[in-house]
Amino acid sequence: MTHPTRTQSSLRLGVNIDHVATVRNARGSAWPDPLRAALLAEASGADGITAHLREDRRHIRDADIEALMAGISIPLNFECAATTEMQMIVLRHRPHAVCLVPEKREERTTEGGLDVAGDQNRLADYIAPLREAGARVSMFISHDPRQIDASARIGAAVVELHTGLYSELLADGHAELADRELAALRKGAEHAASLGLEVHAGHGLTYDNVEPIAAIPEVRELNIGHFLIGEAIFRGLGPAIEEMRRRMDLARG
Q1: By 3-state DSSP, what share of the chain in percent is helix, strand and coil, each rounded to 5?
Q2: 203 is catalytic
Q3: What local confidence, expressed as pLDDT, does residue 104 receive?
Q4: Rounded distance between C-alpha atoms, residue 95 and residue 77, angstroms
Q5: Sign of CA dihedral 243, 157, 109, 31
Q6: Can you give 146-183 as a three-state secondary structure string?
Q7: What is the pLDDT of residues 93-150, one digit of tens each?
Q8: Catalytic residue check, 52
Q9: pLDDT tens digits for 191-218?
Q10: Which of 198, 203, 221, 231 is catalytic?
């Protein structure tokens, strides 16, 4: 399948394949295979693959990271908490990008953004060897200017703005509040770009809510997973990704 060539200013799509592993782990078998999903995503227009190796290994496992590093030809965005164990894994595999996220064992999914401003000195020291190893380091944060400023100060290359609240407000019918959150995301993206940070966004994005986020000119990449894996049950993973890609491109004009 042939896909249009992305330009430097195009909006990229990173497909998170965590929940293929969630389904696999529910039965303790080898199926479905996250690498197969990643390869299908690549063939269907994804610009990158995202995988979150959690401390509890509830979905992606160490062997999945090894298989992804060896098997895909598009960039791997390795999501993880800022722990010593994860730092060692990153330095061993040297993925294209590392996105640091907050992580709690009891959470169902990543809740809120990382508190970079409150942990600035530790995080600066933490990411230094990752940067030296050639990884593009991203901070998964809210649109709070304090968090954006702190991310720039510690030397992150990227911030990924958490779109979960915006998505939840729209889903719950709070259109006015969602519009305010969208405006704050726009302002945050503009501020981050003014500091030289590359801006990504993600969490809770669907066909119904992606276009206003995709239309933010400073956003260079969207990372989307749970919705696409769910939609794949009904239409197949390739067509699900292609439709998301279509809507993103439409929003970008």
Answers
A1: 50, 15, 35
A2: yes
A3: 64
A4: 7
A5: positive
A6: HHHHHHHHHCCCEEEEECHHHHHHHHCCCHHHHHHHHH
A7: 999 999 999 976 554 555 568 999 999 999 999 999 999 999 999 999 999 999 999 9
A8: yes
A9: 999 999 999 999 999 999 999 999 999 9
A10: 203
The residue with tokens 């050639």 is 134
From 52, 59, 143, 191, the catalytic residue: 52
Per-residue pLDDT for 152 more than 90? yes
Neighbouring-strand partners of residue 14? 48, 223
Instruction: Identify the active-site residue in 19, 42, 59, 79.
Output: 79
CATH code of the domain made up of 12-252: 3.20.20.70
- Sign of the C-alpha dihedral computed for residues 46, 107, 154 and 146 taken in this order: positive
Q: What are the domain boundaries of the chain?
A: 12-252
Closest CA to 26 of 59, 54, 55, 56: 59
pLDDT at 10: 83
The question of whether 162 is a catalytic residue gets the answer no
Pairing mode, if any, of strands 12-16 and 198-202? unpaired
Q: Mean per-residue pLDDT for 76-81?
A: 96
